Amino acid sequence: MSVGRRAFLTGAASFAAAGSAPKLVFAQNASQGGGFNDEVLVYVFLRGGLDGLSLYAPGSGHPDRGHYEGLRTSDSVRLPLLGANAMLPLADGFGLNSAAAPLHDLWTQGDLGFVHATGLPIVNRSHFEAERFIEFGTPGSVELGIPGSRLTPDGWLTRHLNSASNLPPSITLPAVVTESRTTLSFLRSSSVVSLRSPGNFDFNETTSGNLEEQVEDTLQSIYAQDGSDLGAAGELALTALTQVEQIFGDVNNFDYNESLSPADRYPTYVSNNGQTRLHTISDKLITLSRLIKADVGLRLSQVDYGGWDDHTDLGALPEGVNGSSGRYYDRLDVLSRAIQAFWNDMRGLANDPRDFTGRVTMVFQSEFGRRAFNNNDNGTDHGAGNMMMLLGGHVNGGQFHGTWPGLAPDDLQNNADLRTTTDFRQVLGEVMIRRFGNNQFGEIFPNFVNFEPMGTVDGPLIFPDYGTGNEIFTDSFE
Amino acid sequence: MESQNQSRRHFLKATSATAAAGAAVGLGIGTNVSASQFDHLPALYPPKDRSFLPAGALPPLAFRVFHKLGFGPKPGDIDAFNALGATDDARLNNWLELQLFPTNVDPEVDSRVNGNANFVTLNQTLTQLWTTYELYEGERAYQVRQRPLYEVESLTLTRMLHSQWQLREMLADFWHNHFNVDGRETGVRSTMTQYDRDVVRPFIFGNFRAMLEANARSTAMLFYLDNRVNSTPNPNENYGRELLELHTLGAVENYYGFIPPAQVPNNGDGQPSGYVEEDVLELARLLTGFGVNDGENSAPNTGTFLFRPERHDDGVKTVVGLDIQGTGESELGVVLDHLASHRGTAEFICWKLAVRLIGDSFSASDTLIQQAATVFQDNWQANNQLELVYRTLILSNEFKTRWTDKAKRPVEVVIAAMRAAESSYTFQPRQRTDVVLAADRNGLLNLFNDTGQALFVYEPPTGYPEDRGIWQGAGPLIQSWRAITRFFREDDDDNNLYANVAETTNAMLAPALRTPNDIVDAWLDRIYGFTIPAAKRNAMVGLVAQGADPALEITADTTNTTNNSDYQRRIRGLVELITMSPEFMTR
């Protein structure tokens, strides 16, 4: 408990230093004008353990450049200072992978920022354990004396939605994951819709007559009569079917993309049989864009963009450059262009000039960073601290937040990893408080009692309610 | 009620047409769409909370056995089960003793696969597969290299649908997920035939230690988790970590993170009760040099296992408390003995099996898991170790009494529906005509991708999750139901006929008895064998009756049983409702 107490005092000090007296007000969007919060979260999970040191790294002027080069001995797992793929300058001596040039533009425009070296406060190098702990909003394992983490049965976004008190009494489609299955962050939510392919989200009878709709409707009435949680799940699914049919009509995401002017289109590729296809990340972000623009109340969304588990041939440079396989580079390139397209879309396009950027916050996270040094196979193994990336109209972009831990031997965690300097819940928590007006941390982030606002996003501060048993942390600042 | 529903949908259809008109300009979005256009839709917030478990009686044991230990009963299965003994216990015991010893006799599968020109890789050796498919260069290279994957995927689905060895198929699915590989990857796609046939299936009822070593030496796993290139002095930890975390001890209970090995508490056997990061590093060192004849560094390019001494770390390693001398290839056997006989492995494997076969809410400390773990550990060298473990779990009171705390996964939902409808479908790839080695995946299998459970292509090494919270969501439910509606009517392939549920109805009921009431009751009895609440039954009757008196003979022409006749489609809709209802979605 003494650790928590000390951390709390530190947190209180920064509140005081920032001169932000806590106010019990909810974040509101000025343009919306009502009493309800209408912010939209796009939570992008980069599954597999993205190598943050191949996204941005110390550049020529940075004191850690020498350490970085000593750790990243493989030419294909080290961002170069010179040449066609030279790092793009950010701030504080760091440079960005050239594959992420579109993100550099967003950084320059002030909408995109990074938080250094975030992660679980208790490092866990297992993919599925780390993902579970993060998506359940918990600190890590129980063995080291922090209770409750394994016992949490549902996701942090499930609990946010259940505890929010500033939402309208009824929302048509409040939460979507763009995946075929529910993500852990929304586990056991009775409001979330998993929607991977809106173009075929219905039954598939022969088309003549209306038997398909009769079967769908009859099944819905059967599920509505079932008193179980499965009954509720089926009813939700069939309600979602009706909604998706209406919102997306007969226009699939590919055709939507083709209808945009070429400069505005999301990235595509040519498949094995010669057809042009949407990249998966494009498809998913288009789904969200269309839902946001349809004004059906979307508040929360999660997107997976995985494949970052590069134990061998990571390939941080284009294929063939410095022996690179180009896998990481290509993945980052597609992600960056898709983000750029989405953000342009949110700013308004010719067919719909409405600007949604003031309501949208994107948070990008991976379950852990990778080892500071590369292995024999031009890859990297599981590590600890990793960046989080934020993009939004209210993100304090064009800057780094948090603390860079350094790459000198003594700076590394366990002599091997980028040290975790910021609990990931500080970042998610600040977004919850400043943008979503929800301070119910006792619900959302169990056992998290030392929130310190970092200034990653703007918006009013509310002091967290850490919940029953943590009153000492919620009473006052004294 | 029914008519209100339909009028609502008709109203929605009308607005859809409006949206489609708007789409000509703005594709359904934009300034021509008002913010309130969708306000009439039902809302998903605030959430509806319902009780955790449905009320009601436990279905008969026979029904539960086929849904828990197999892919649902075919008509006739439940009667056959009930003929196996005078009591439920005797029936379960006798059924299990048959299923634990599958023979080579499997006529419903053999008749579909043997001599089928779409399956050509099933009997090929590893080296044949490697040289013919993995190393293929030329036209349609993608469809050639993936062909073994396509064949195994289709063969597996065909077995799930038609095999009389249902327990074997359920367990094959379990072990494939336990030792998950992504079948799309280089070195995996082309060897999937061998991985399924020689690495997983021979050990299903046998010995875990033997399965573990076959797996460690398999080309598919060596490629998938990168151990193929693991070499000293800077090993990659990918396989070593998952060997501890997923294949043996398990991270859920037995991963102690970064503490020094000496601080890990001992278990009752006097061994460290789990593993730490240092053990991962040591095991990764031990595994250096275990690779594949992949043509690199002057090795032959045959795809078979190769130990490369020059890449191996010969130092002493300490893994989970055991010092292992640097003896080369034989170190693998030493460490696998250690891990396979460890209490933590016994508890982890038995816990996973119980979650698969019985229900989601077990923990390793439960009495049943401890009992099964003792059987597992005491028999770790026995040839029938796993058979003994299955028997312990399946004959338990927990198995006989637990129901509804487990969701069927999409493959189980779809296959169970097809079995209930007596679908004669054969899942098979499509031989290409332009390149003789090439085959296309059956396009309908994309339906499984949409459900979130396409076999053999799950990317993370965990295998598909079990938690019902993952599967009882909108995506898996809608897409599983979509797949059912599609497969029921599939008839555009020479080898497959639609599930002719109209003819089945006619065989059950004489013409005068073909009333909506009697038709629904006959099918409920055929598929469920127990009664369901009247309101649910009446909803089904409404669909079949189509507004006519349900006590009178059905208004459709019952002599027309073609695929799209009115009669066929009404009965199909009924069978869909029965197989999509909550009673059929649990295990």
How would you describe what is shown here?
The complex is a heterodimer of chains A (478) and B (587). By secondary structure, chain A is an alpha/beta fold. Helix content of chain A is 30%, strand content 12%. Chain A has 13 helices and 14 strands. In chain A, the strands form three sheets. In chain A, strands 1, 5, 6, 7, 10, 11, 12, 13 and 14 form a nine-stranded mixed β-sheet that branches. In chain A, strands 2-4-3 form a three-stranded antiparallel β-sheet, with no helix packed on it. A two-stranded antiparallel ribbon of chain A has the order 8-9. In chain A, helix 3 packs across helix 10. Chain B folds into four domains: 159 residues, no CATH class; 111 residues, no CATH class; 58 residues; 85 residues, no CATH class. Chain B is 49% helix and 4% strand. Chain B has 29 helices and six strands. A two-stranded antiparallel sheet of chain B has the order 1-2. The longest helix of chain B has 25 residues. The radius of gyration of chain B is 27 Å and the shape is globular. At the A-B interface, helix 4, strand 7, helix 6, helix 7 and helix 8 of A face helix 1, helix 13, helix 22, helix 23 and helix 24 of B.
Class from helix and strand fractions of chain B: mainly alpha
User: Biggest sheet of chain B, open or closed, and with what strands and sense?
Assistant: 2 strands, antiparallel
Overall strand count of chain A: 14
Overall mean confidence score, pLDDT of chain A:
89
Contiguous low-pLDDT stretches of chain A (5 residues minimum) are: 1-33, 143-149, 474-478
Ranges of chain B where pLDDT stays below 50 over 5 or more residues in a row are 1-35
Q: What is the terminal separation of chain B in angstroms?
A: 31 Å
Number of helices of chain B: 29
β-strand amount of chain A: 5-15%
